[in-house]
Amino acid sequence: MSLREPLVTVFMVRPTLDGLPAHPLPSPFTLRPYRPGDEATWARIESLSDPHTAVTADLFEEQFGADEAELSARQRYLCDGDGAAVGTITAWHNDDYPGRRYGRVHWVAIVPSHQGRGLAKPLLASCLELMEELGCEGAYLTTEPPRIPAINLYLRFGFTPDVRSEDQRRAWQAILEQVKDEFRPAVEAVLEQYT
């Protein structure tokens, strides 16, 4: 399987939230919670950061529902020095992954004009810290094989592949050739366990 073949969703897991890496948010950036009306803010950020994903008016509610209190507790927006939202992440939930109460790192995005500035690390760190505060036992996420920079970030934060099918094993085999050398042993160890 190559990274050019039809996309297979791959899973990554961090079994505990112990020893989370600290990555403070650089000045003048701030984080704020969801507030009513942020559906349009979220759609703008997602559309700009990933033009290949169809962000429709219904997608936000389809993914997150409409409970504003829950959204305020779980969704964060990265804001620049002028207060404009330039990124988003959600500490979503799954009370049965796999049979445990895991948080889901969901819909991570930073607009292109702010990518490459090291902002994804503090954004992800804040999400995992929030999950810990919310009582999650661990964390998981889904992504796609071409998202190598994101996969490297997740590996740096202690996530490892969670292989659930032969298609996913083949996808991870292709990913293995693209990730940073320092992360290859962790990916190889998981692939060796999958039979």
Report on this model:
Helix 6 packs antiparallel against helix 7 (184-193). The protein starts with 9 loop residues before the first strand and ends with a helix. The protein is an alpha+beta fold. The chain is built from 7 helices and 7 strands, in the order E-E-H-H-H-E-E-E-H-E-H-E-H-H. Helix content is 35%, strand content 21%. The protein has a 7-stranded mixed β-sheet with strand order 2-3-4-5-6-1-7. The protein is globular. The protein folds into 2 domains: 1-16 and 139-195, no CATH class; 20-136, Gcn5-related N-acetyltransferase (GNAT) (Aminopeptidase, 3-Layer(aba) Sandwich), CATH 3.40.630.30.
CATH topology of the largest domain: Aminopeptidase
Total of DSSP H or I helical runs spanning 4+ residues: 7
Q: Helices and strands: which structural class?
A: alpha+beta
Main-sheet strand order equals 2-3-4-5-6-1-7
Tell me, briefly, the overall form: globular
CATH superfamily of the largest domain: Gcn5-related N-acetyltransferase (GNAT)
CATH architectural designation of the largest domain: 3-Layer(aba) Sandwich
Q: Percent of residues in beta strands? A: 15-25%
Instruction: Kindly state the percentage of residues in helix.
Output: 25-40%
Uncertain residue segments: none
- The oligomeric state is single chain
